[in-house]
Protein backbone atom coordinates (compact mmCIF):
# COMPACT_ATOMS: atom_id res chain seq x y z
CA UNK A 1 0.00 0.00 0.00
CA UNK A 2 1.29 3.50 -0.86
CA UNK A 3 2.67 5.91 1.75
CA UNK A 4 -0.20 8.21 0.82
CA UNK A 5 -2.75 5.64 1.89
CA UNK A 6 -0.74 4.91 5.03
CA UNK A 7 -0.89 8.58 5.98
CA UNK A 8 -4.69 8.74 5.85
CA UNK A 9 -5.33 5.35 7.45
CA UNK A 10 -5.17 6.78 10.97
CA UNK A 11 -7.68 9.48 10.03
CA UNK A 12 -10.11 6.86 8.77
CA UNK A 13 -9.69 4.72 11.90
CA UNK A 14 -10.22 7.70 14.20
CA UNK A 15 -13.29 8.73 12.20
CA UNK A 16 -14.75 5.24 12.47
CA UNK A 17 -14.16 5.11 16.24
CA UNK A 18 -15.83 8.49 16.64
CA UNK A 19 -18.80 7.34 14.58
CA UNK A 20 -19.61 4.08 16.35
CA UNK A 21 -21.56 3.72 19.57
CA UNK A 22 -19.08 2.30 22.08
CA UNK A 23 -21.87 1.54 24.56
CA UNK A 24 -23.21 -1.37 22.52
CA UNK A 25 -21.86 -4.34 20.57
CA UNK A 26 -21.58 -3.55 16.88
CA UNK A 27 -21.82 -6.29 14.25
CA UNK A 28 -19.29 -6.77 11.46
CA UNK A 29 -21.86 -5.61 8.93
CA UNK A 30 -22.55 -2.40 10.83
CA UNK A 31 -18.83 -1.74 11.23
CA UNK A 32 -18.23 -2.13 7.49
CA UNK A 33 -21.06 0.34 6.76
CA UNK A 34 -19.49 2.87 9.14
CA UNK A 35 -16.09 2.37 7.47
CA UNK A 36 -17.63 2.97 4.01
CA UNK A 37 -19.31 6.17 5.20
CA UNK A 38 -16.11 7.44 6.83
CA UNK A 39 -14.06 6.75 3.69
CA UNK A 40 -16.69 8.55 1.59
CA UNK A 41 -16.56 11.52 3.95
CA UNK A 42 -12.74 11.70 3.86
CA UNK A 43 -12.65 11.32 0.07
CA UNK A 44 -14.47 14.66 -0.29
CA UNK A 45 -11.32 16.47 0.83
CA UNK A 46 -8.72 13.87 -0.19
CA UNK A 47 -8.37 12.04 -3.48
CA UNK A 48 -8.58 8.27 -2.86
CA UNK A 49 -8.61 5.90 -5.81
CA UNK A 50 -11.01 2.94 -5.90
CA UNK A 51 -8.10 0.52 -5.40
CA UNK A 52 -6.91 2.44 -2.34
CA UNK A 53 -10.47 2.67 -0.99
CA UNK A 54 -10.81 -1.10 -1.12
CA UNK A 55 -7.42 -1.57 0.56
CA UNK A 56 -8.20 1.03 3.24
CA UNK A 57 -11.54 -0.62 4.01
CA UNK A 58 -9.90 -3.99 4.47
CA UNK A 59 -7.02 -2.69 6.57
CA UNK A 60 -9.20 -0.50 8.78
CA UNK A 61 -11.55 -3.43 9.42
CA UNK A 62 -8.59 -5.70 10.21
CA UNK A 63 -7.12 -3.08 12.53
CA UNK A 64 -10.33 -2.70 14.52
CA UNK A 65 -11.83 -6.19 14.46
CA UNK A 66 -9.02 -8.56 13.41
CA UNK A 67 -5.22 -8.80 13.81
CA UNK A 68 -4.22 -5.65 11.92
CA UNK A 69 -1.49 -6.20 9.28
CA UNK A 70 -1.18 -9.87 10.26
CA UNK A 71 -4.68 -10.69 9.05
CA UNK A 72 -3.84 -10.71 5.34
CA UNK A 73 -0.78 -12.87 6.00
CA UNK A 74 -2.82 -15.33 8.06
CA UNK A 75 -5.46 -15.57 5.32
CA UNK A 76 -2.82 -16.24 2.64
CA UNK A 77 -2.80 -20.04 2.36
CA UNK A 78 0.59 -20.07 0.63
CA UNK A 79 2.28 -18.69 3.77
CA UNK A 80 3.32 -21.37 6.25
CA UNK A 81 5.10 -19.28 8.88
CA UNK A 82 4.99 -15.67 10.05
CA UNK A 83 7.93 -14.25 12.03
CA UNK A 84 7.65 -10.86 13.75
CA UNK A 85 10.87 -9.29 15.04
CA UNK A 86 9.56 -6.11 16.62
CA UNK A 87 6.98 -3.82 15.07
CA UNK A 88 9.02 -2.96 11.96
CA UNK A 89 10.14 -6.40 10.77
CA UNK A 90 7.69 -9.07 9.64
CA UNK A 91 9.01 -12.05 7.71
CA UNK A 92 7.11 -14.89 6.07
CA UNK A 93 7.89 -18.39 4.85
CA UNK A 94 6.58 -19.53 1.46
CA UNK A 95 7.54 -22.75 -0.24
CA UNK A 96 10.26 -23.33 2.35
CA UNK A 97 11.93 -19.93 1.72
CA UNK A 98 11.86 -16.85 3.96
CA UNK A 99 10.95 -13.39 2.63
CA UNK A 100 10.43 -9.92 4.02
CA UNK A 101 6.64 -9.36 4.00
CA UNK A 102 6.99 -5.63 3.37
CA UNK A 103 4.50 -4.96 6.17
CA UNK A 104 4.94 -3.46 9.61
CA UNK A 105 2.91 -2.33 12.59
CA UNK A 106 2.44 1.40 13.04
CA UNK A 107 3.81 1.24 16.58
CA UNK A 108 4.92 -1.09 19.35
CA UNK A 109 1.67 -0.22 21.11
CA UNK A 110 -0.35 -1.63 18.19
CA UNK A 111 1.77 -4.79 18.12
CA UNK A 112 1.23 -5.20 21.87
CA UNK A 113 -2.54 -4.81 21.38
CA UNK A 114 -2.49 -7.59 18.78
CA UNK A 115 -0.40 -9.80 21.09
CA UNK A 116 -2.91 -9.40 23.92
CA UNK A 117 -5.71 -10.23 21.50
CA UNK A 118 -3.90 -13.40 20.42
CA UNK A 119 -3.23 -14.69 23.94
CA UNK A 120 -6.84 -14.01 24.93
CA UNK A 121 -7.95 -16.63 22.37
CA UNK A 122 -6.15 -19.29 24.43
CA UNK A 123 -6.97 -17.81 27.83
CA UNK A 124 -3.27 -17.12 28.45
CA UNK A 125 -1.49 -14.21 30.10
CA UNK A 126 1.68 -12.47 28.94
CA UNK A 127 3.37 -9.47 30.51
CA UNK A 128 6.80 -8.33 31.70
CA UNK A 129 6.74 -10.68 34.68
CA UNK A 130 5.67 -13.62 32.47
CA UNK A 131 7.19 -12.69 29.10
CA UNK A 132 7.03 -16.04 27.26
CA UNK A 133 3.87 -17.84 26.18
CA UNK A 134 2.65 -20.47 23.74
CA UNK A 135 -0.82 -19.85 22.36
CA UNK A 136 -2.92 -20.52 19.28
CA UNK A 137 -5.12 -18.59 16.88
CA UNK A 138 -8.78 -19.34 16.29
CA UNK A 139 -7.85 -21.38 13.20
CA UNK A 140 -5.51 -23.55 15.27
CA UNK A 141 -2.25 -21.92 14.16
CA UNK A 142 0.54 -22.25 16.72
CA UNK A 143 1.89 -19.02 18.26
CA UNK A 144 5.00 -18.42 20.35
CA UNK A 145 5.49 -14.96 21.88
CA UNK A 146 8.50 -13.49 23.71
CA UNK A 147 8.31 -9.97 25.15
CA UNK A 148 10.99 -7.51 26.27
CA UNK A 149 13.17 -7.51 28.31
CA UNK A 150 13.81 -11.10 27.20
CA UNK A 151 13.47 -10.15 23.52
CA UNK A 152 15.88 -7.22 23.20
CA UNK A 153 14.58 -5.67 19.95
CA UNK A 154 10.88 -5.65 20.71
CA UNK A 155 8.23 -8.38 20.88
CA UNK A 156 9.10 -11.54 18.96
CA UNK A 157 6.10 -13.46 17.63
CA UNK A 158 6.30 -16.68 15.60
CA UNK A 159 3.16 -18.10 14.02
CA UNK A 160 3.18 -21.61 12.57
CA UNK A 161 0.18 -21.95 10.28
CA UNK A 162 -1.62 -25.18 9.55
CA UNK A 163 -3.66 -25.83 6.40
CA UNK A 164 -7.40 -25.30 6.71
CA UNK A 165 -7.95 -28.74 5.20
CA UNK A 166 -5.80 -31.27 7.10
CA UNK A 167 -3.14 -33.02 5.03
CA UNK A 168 -3.87 -36.66 4.29
CA UNK A 169 -1.59 -39.60 3.63
CA UNK A 170 -2.50 -39.31 -0.05
CA UNK A 171 -1.13 -35.76 0.03
CA UNK A 172 2.13 -36.94 1.60
CA UNK A 173 2.45 -39.59 -1.10
CA UNK A 174 1.90 -36.99 -3.83
CA UNK A 175 4.54 -34.72 -2.21
CA UNK A 176 7.01 -37.60 -2.23
CA UNK A 177 7.31 -37.62 1.57
CA UNK A 178 6.37 -41.32 1.72
CA UNK A 179 5.61 -44.11 -0.73
CA UNK A 180 2.35 -46.03 -1.08
CA UNK A 181 4.09 -49.10 0.35
CA UNK A 182 5.20 -47.19 3.46
CA UNK A 183 1.75 -45.65 3.89
CA UNK A 184 0.15 -49.09 3.81
CA UNK A 185 2.74 -50.39 6.29
CA UNK A 186 2.13 -47.50 8.72
CA UNK A 187 -1.65 -47.93 8.48
CA UNK A 188 -1.31 -51.56 9.51
CA UNK A 189 0.92 -50.58 12.44
CA UNK A 190 -1.56 -47.97 13.69
CA UNK A 191 -4.55 -50.31 13.39
CA UNK A 192 -2.58 -53.03 15.19
CA UNK A 193 -1.85 -50.64 18.08
CA UNK A 194 1.90 -50.28 17.80
CA UNK A 195 3.20 -47.42 19.98
CA UNK A 196 4.70 -44.97 17.50
CA UNK A 197 7.00 -42.06 18.28
CA UNK A 198 7.56 -39.37 15.64
CA UNK A 199 10.93 -37.66 15.78
CA UNK A 200 12.36 -34.75 13.82
CA UNK A 201 13.87 -31.30 13.87
CA UNK A 202 12.04 -27.98 13.95
CA UNK A 203 9.77 -27.56 10.94
CA UNK A 204 10.13 -31.17 9.80
CA UNK A 205 6.36 -31.76 9.93
CA UNK A 206 5.95 -33.79 13.13
CA UNK A 207 2.52 -32.43 14.05
CA UNK A 208 1.27 -32.84 10.49
CA UNK A 209 2.50 -36.43 10.37
CA UNK A 210 0.94 -37.16 13.75
CA UNK A 211 -2.39 -35.89 12.41
CA UNK A 212 -2.09 -38.11 9.37
CA UNK A 213 -1.31 -41.24 11.38
CA UNK A 214 -4.11 -40.53 13.86
CA UNK A 215 -6.66 -40.75 11.07
CA UNK A 216 -5.84 -44.46 10.71
CA UNK A 217 -7.21 -45.08 14.21
CA UNK A 218 -10.50 -47.00 14.01
CA UNK A 219 -13.56 -44.82 14.61
CA UNK A 220 -14.79 -47.10 17.40
CA UNK A 221 -11.88 -46.21 19.70
CA UNK A 222 -11.75 -43.51 22.36
CA UNK A 223 -8.87 -41.03 22.02
CA UNK A 224 -7.43 -38.63 24.59
CA UNK A 225 -5.14 -35.91 23.21
CA UNK A 226 -2.77 -33.95 25.43
CA UNK A 227 -1.00 -30.81 24.23
CA UNK A 228 0.74 -27.67 25.43
CA UNK A 229 -1.33 -25.71 22.94
CA UNK A 230 -4.08 -27.55 21.08
CA UNK A 231 -3.02 -28.06 17.45
CA UNK A 232 -4.04 -31.58 16.48
CA UNK A 233 -6.85 -31.92 13.95
CA UNK A 234 -8.18 -35.43 14.43
CA UNK A 235 -11.41 -35.78 12.49
CA UNK A 236 -11.78 -39.51 12.13
CA UNK A 237 -13.66 -40.04 15.41
CA UNK A 238 -16.19 -38.24 17.56
CA UNK A 239 -15.18 -40.08 20.76
CA UNK A 240 -12.27 -37.78 21.49
CA UNK A 241 -11.31 -35.71 24.54
CA UNK A 242 -8.88 -32.84 23.93
CA UNK A 243 -6.81 -31.72 26.92
CA UNK A 244 -4.62 -28.60 27.02
CA UNK A 245 -2.20 -27.46 29.71
CA UNK A 246 -3.02 -24.49 31.91
CA UNK A 247 -0.29 -22.07 32.85
CA UNK A 248 0.11 -20.78 36.38
CA UNK A 249 -1.83 -17.65 37.28
CA UNK A 250 -0.26 -14.35 38.30
CA UNK A 251 0.36 -15.78 41.77
CA UNK A 252 2.16 -18.81 40.37
CA UNK A 253 -0.65 -21.19 41.29
CA UNK A 254 -3.19 -23.49 39.57
CA UNK A 255 -0.81 -24.75 36.90
CA UNK A 256 -1.75 -27.97 35.12
CA UNK A 257 1.11 -29.36 33.05
CA UNK A 258 1.54 -32.26 30.62
CA UNK A 259 2.42 -34.63 33.48
CA UNK A 260 -0.81 -33.79 35.31
CA UNK A 261 -2.86 -34.36 32.17
CA UNK A 262 -1.21 -37.69 31.38
CA UNK A 263 -2.00 -38.93 34.89
CA UNK A 264 -5.65 -37.89 34.69
CA UNK A 265 -6.03 -39.26 31.16
CA UNK A 266 -5.37 -42.76 32.48
CA UNK A 267 -8.61 -42.50 34.45
CA UNK A 268 -10.66 -41.47 31.40
CA UNK A 269 -10.90 -44.92 29.82
CA UNK A 270 -8.68 -44.15 26.80
CA UNK A 271 -8.11 -46.66 24.04
CA UNK A 272 -5.27 -44.45 22.85
CA UNK A 273 -3.38 -41.49 24.25
CA UNK A 274 -1.88 -38.96 21.84
CA UNK A 275 0.65 -36.55 23.32
CA UNK A 276 1.44 -33.61 21.06
CA UNK A 277 5.09 -33.24 22.03
CA UNK A 278 7.34 -34.38 24.85
CA UNK A 279 9.99 -31.89 25.86
CA UNK A 280 10.42 -32.28 29.64
CA UNK A 281 9.94 -34.70 32.53
CA UNK A 282 6.58 -35.68 31.05
CA UNK A 283 8.60 -38.30 29.15
CA UNK A 284 8.62 -40.35 32.38
CA UNK A 285 4.81 -40.34 32.54
CA UNK A 286 4.56 -41.04 28.82
CA UNK A 287 6.59 -44.23 29.25
CA UNK A 288 4.40 -45.27 32.18
CA UNK A 289 1.26 -44.73 30.10
CA UNK A 290 2.67 -46.63 27.12
CA UNK A 291 3.70 -49.48 29.41
CA UNK A 292 0.39 -49.85 31.26
CA UNK A 293 -1.90 -51.24 28.59
CA UNK A 294 -2.47 -48.17 26.41
CA UNK A 295 -1.18 -49.66 23.20
CA UNK A 296 -1.48 -47.72 19.98
CA UNK A 297 -0.49 -44.42 21.56
CA UNK A 298 1.37 -41.72 19.64
CA UNK A 299 3.69 -38.85 20.48
CA UNK A 300 6.40 -36.60 19.01
CA UNK A 301 9.74 -35.18 20.05
CA UNK A 302 12.62 -33.05 18.79
CA UNK A 303 15.74 -34.90 17.61
CA UNK A 304 17.91 -35.13 14.52
CA UNK A 305 18.05 -38.92 14.32
CA UNK A 306 16.48 -42.04 15.76
CA UNK A 307 19.42 -42.65 18.10
CA UNK A 308 19.37 -39.00 19.19
CA UNK A 309 15.69 -39.36 20.05
CA UNK A 310 16.33 -42.38 22.25
CA UNK A 311 19.16 -40.54 23.99
CA UNK A 312 17.01 -37.44 24.46
CA UNK A 313 14.19 -39.50 25.98
CA UNK A 314 16.66 -40.81 28.53
CA UNK A 315 17.65 -37.26 29.44
CA UNK A 316 14.03 -36.12 29.70
CA UNK A 317 13.12 -39.02 31.97
CA UNK A 318 16.02 -38.10 34.26
CA UNK A 319 14.46 -34.65 34.68
CA UNK A 320 11.54 -36.32 36.44
CA UNK A 321 13.13 -39.18 38.35
CA UNK A 322 16.56 -40.45 39.36
CA UNK A 323 16.50 -43.87 37.73
CA UNK A 324 19.47 -45.92 36.56
CA UNK A 325 20.11 -45.48 32.84
CA UNK A 326 19.73 -49.17 32.18
CA UNK A 327 16.29 -49.16 33.81
CA UNK A 328 15.25 -46.17 31.67
CA UNK A 329 16.44 -47.88 28.51
CA UNK A 330 14.48 -51.00 29.37
CA UNK A 331 11.35 -48.89 29.87
CA UNK A 332 11.88 -47.09 26.55
CA UNK A 333 12.41 -50.35 24.66
CA UNK A 334 9.29 -51.82 26.25
CA UNK A 335 7.13 -48.73 25.65
CA UNK A 336 7.99 -47.64 22.10
CA UNK A 337 7.60 -50.01 19.17
CA UNK A 338 8.37 -47.78 16.19
CA UNK A 339 10.22 -44.48 15.67
CA UNK A 340 9.48 -42.48 12.51
CA UNK A 341 12.27 -40.00 11.82
CA UNK A 342 11.35 -36.91 9.77
CA UNK A 343 13.66 -34.33 8.28
CA UNK A 344 13.88 -31.30 6.08
CA UNK A 345 16.30 -31.69 3.19
CA UNK A 346 18.45 -28.96 1.67
CA UNK A 347 15.80 -28.31 -1.01
CA UNK A 348 13.43 -27.50 1.91
CA UNK A 349 11.27 -30.56 1.24
CA UNK A 350 9.98 -32.55 4.20
CA UNK A 351 10.61 -36.28 4.02
CA UNK A 352 10.38 -39.40 6.13
CA UNK A 353 14.06 -40.27 6.54
CA UNK A 354 13.83 -43.48 8.51
CA UNK A 355 11.36 -45.90 10.06
CA UNK A 356 12.92 -48.10 12.73
CA UNK A 357 11.68 -50.78 15.06
CA UNK A 358 12.77 -50.45 18.68
CA UNK A 359 13.91 -53.83 19.98
CA UNK A 360 15.04 -55.00 23.40
CA UNK A 361 17.66 -53.47 25.64
CA UNK A 362 20.62 -55.82 25.48
CA UNK A 363 23.89 -55.36 27.41
CA UNK A 364 22.65 -51.97 28.54
CA UNK A 365 22.01 -50.67 24.99
CA UNK A 366 18.74 -50.32 23.05
CA UNK A 367 18.80 -52.19 19.76
CA UNK A 368 17.05 -50.66 16.77
CA UNK A 369 16.01 -52.39 13.57
CA UNK A 370 15.90 -49.96 10.57
CA UNK A 371 13.03 -50.98 8.28
CA UNK A 372 12.98 -48.11 5.76
CA UNK A 373 15.73 -45.57 5.06
CA UNK A 374 15.66 -42.58 2.70
CA UNK A 375 18.19 -42.85 -0.11
CA UNK A 376 19.13 -39.83 -2.22
CA UNK A 377 19.74 -40.60 -5.90
CA UNK A 378 20.38 -37.24 -7.52
CA UNK A 379 19.49 -33.55 -7.62
CA UNK A 380 17.53 -32.07 -10.51
CA UNK A 381 16.78 -28.35 -10.85
CA UNK A 382 17.47 -27.86 -7.16
CA UNK A 383 15.14 -30.69 -6.12
CA UNK A 384 16.41 -33.82 -4.43
CA UNK A 385 15.42 -37.08 -6.11
CA UNK A 386 15.30 -40.07 -3.80
CA UNK A 387 13.07 -42.63 -2.17
CA UNK A 388 12.24 -44.17 1.17
CA UNK A 389 13.60 -47.63 0.44
CA UNK A 390 12.95 -50.84 2.34
CA UNK A 391 16.00 -52.36 4.00
CA UNK A 392 16.79 -56.06 4.12
CA UNK A 393 15.50 -56.13 7.70
CA UNK A 394 12.06 -57.48 8.53
CA UNK A 395 9.71 -56.38 11.31
CA UNK A 396 10.60 -58.73 14.16
CA UNK A 397 7.83 -58.01 16.67
CA UNK A 398 4.77 -59.25 14.79
CA UNK A 399 2.60 -60.14 17.80
CA UNK A 400 0.33 -57.11 17.49
CA UNK A 401 -0.18 -57.71 13.77
CA UNK A 402 -1.29 -61.28 14.53
CA UNK A 403 -3.61 -60.13 17.35
CA UNK A 404 -5.20 -57.58 15.01
CA UNK A 405 -5.79 -60.27 12.41
CA UNK A 406 -3.61 -58.53 9.84
CA UNK A 407 -1.13 -61.41 9.86
CA UNK A 408 -2.32 -64.99 10.11
CA UNK A 409 -0.50 -68.15 11.16
CA UNK A 410 -2.02 -70.08 8.28
Provide structural commentary.
With 410 residues, the protein is of the alpha/beta class. The protein has 3 domains: 65 residues, no CATH class; 97 residues, Beta-Lactamase (2-Layer Sandwich); 235 residues, 3-Layer(aba) Sandwich (Rossmann fold), CATH 3.40.50. Helices cover 35% and strands 24% of the residues. A 9-stranded mixed sheet has the order 9-8-10-11-7-12-13-14-15, sandwiched between helices. Strand 12 and strand 13 form a beta hairpin. Helix 10 packs across helix 11. The N and C termini lie far apart (71 Å).
Properties at a glance:
single chain; 410 residues; alpha/beta; Beta-Lactamase; Rossmann fold; 3 domains; 9-stranded mixed β-sheet; 6-stranded antiparallel β-sheet; 13 helices; 15 strands; 24% strand; elongated
What would you report as the Rg, rounded to the nearest angstrom? Answer: 25 Å
The backbone outline, from C-alpha atoms, is elongated
CATH architecture annotation of the largest domain: 3-Layer(aba) Sandwich
Q: State which percent range the strand residues make up.
A: 15-25%
Helix coverage percent of residues? 25-40%
Element string (H = helix, E = strand) = HHHHEEEHEEEHHEHEEHEHEHHEEEEH
Q: List the quaternary state of the chains.
A: single chain
The DSSP helix count reads 13
How many strands, which pairing sense, and closed or not: the largest β-sheet? 9 strands, mixed
Q: Which strand order does the major sheet show?
A: 9-8-10-11-7-12-13-14-15
What separation lies between the terminal Cα atoms?
Answer: 71 Å
CATH topology group of the largest domain: Rossmann fold
Query: Overall pLDDT, averaged?
Result: 88
CATH superfamily of the largest domain: P-loop containing nucleotide triphosphate hydrolases
Q: What is the total number of structural domains?
A: 3
Task: Report low-confidence residues grouped into runs of 5 or more.
Answer: none
- CATH class of the largest domain reads Alpha Beta
